[in-house]
Design a protein that fits this description.
By secondary structure, the chain is mainly alpha-helical. 46% of the residues lie in helices and 8% in strands. The protein is built from 5 helices and 3 strands; from the N terminus they run αβααββαα. A 3-stranded antiparallel beta sheet has the order 1-3-2. Strand 2 and strand 3 form a beta hairpin.
Amino acid sequence: MAFSRIAYDILAYLVDNKATVIMSAEAISEMMEDPKIGVVSTGTIYKIVNELWGVGLVAQGAKKGTANTYYITQAGIKHLSEALGVDESELMSIIESEIVGGNSYEK
């Protein structure tokens, strides 16, 4: 399945922010703060996240207040690594590292 560039930016954002389990999940409002993601409307981000959720690339995390949160699944990590042309282990090293943020997912 083909996704938009913003969809891949969302997956990469979740990797960069170590949103890989229920308790580290990110809300859409937090995603909107990223300059690459915030260029589109909240409604568009919601639709894209819902699409990613529908195919199992993201999952819902614990609520933050009343906001739903999302994290990247193992299938999402695999899909993103294939799209970027990098080994899955490279993305895992980003997740496991102490460095958060920036554009570490870009080659």
